[in-house]
Amino acid sequence: MKNEFMNVPIFTGEGKIHFEERKIPIPGDNQLLIQAKANLLCGSDRNQFYNGSPKCIPGHEGAGVIVDKGKNAKFDIGMKGAVYLYDYCHKCRSCQLGLTNQCLHKNYDYGFSIDGAFCEYYLINDYVFFPVDESVDVINATLLLDVMGTGGHATKRAQLVHKDIQSVLINGAGPIGLGLLAMSKLTFAKDLPVMINDVKSSRLPLAEKMGGLPIDLSKQSLEEGMEQHGIKNPDVAIDATGKAIARKNALQALAKRGVLVMVGNGEGLEFEQYPDMGGPERSILGSEYFSYNEMEANHELLKNNQEYLSQIITHQYNIKDVQKSYEHFFSEDSDAGKIAVVHN
Ligand SMILES: [Zn+2]
Ligand SMILES: [Zn+2]
To answer: Which residues surround ligand 1, an ion (CB under 5 A)?
Structure first.
């Protein structure tokens, strides 16, 4: 390494970030030193931005290039790719089935409990690195994480219990909602009707541009919106809002055999066993992140749909303006989909 030191952003809380000099770490056995190129902002960064991150440098949706490696580490220096969030154990019953998002003994979460991609250089264990094809832009490689990964996992959860999905309703047209929309189109069928609602009108034009059927809840009710699109009862509803009322309305709108998948964390859900669940045999499923091995198929989708998917990244900031990027992202009337913070 030429420079032994780097500047890293310190999240002190109350929306303040300053930079401090740190030594660039040296990879141990089976470790990779990643030069971070980009990291996408996420709603789940809210706590670190407003309450601080004393344990580590944040950044859990990162992509970069391998610049050094320890003994026995797989992958080669120079490869670019995305970094999976969970440092999973490989051994527990979930990991044995490949369900690394349900690991029972994970070591840590990159960007939450150990340094993440806002560090220009950071260490990872080789098994959380996912290399991408030459044709994939390194900034777009971040889309493999929460956007395509979490979005795609939720759509696959719905397919577990519903075999002939003909329409989808998405609650929330923010960054996760846009990922759900894109992955519904790409996993189910490009011409599948996907309705997408939000109380913020400013979010809907991009959703519509990406093929969603918009429902502006600041101007109309869910029923009115669905009727306007000619779909009374969708087969699948996916909630990205975490709001109890949004979930309940979606559940009650579902067709017979319908599935509600809950992605957004937040509030609860109230329902009556009958008629909400028992009569129409509806299902309610949780969905959390995605497993490492799901990235392989998503990588194929990304290679073939890079232009379509990259629309979700609406803004870019340099790392030196990381505080400004969050002020933009968390502002009340934010027009942002995903915001990428880039190094250099
Ligand atoms: Zn995230
Ligand atoms: Zn495990």
So the answer is: 42, 61, 146
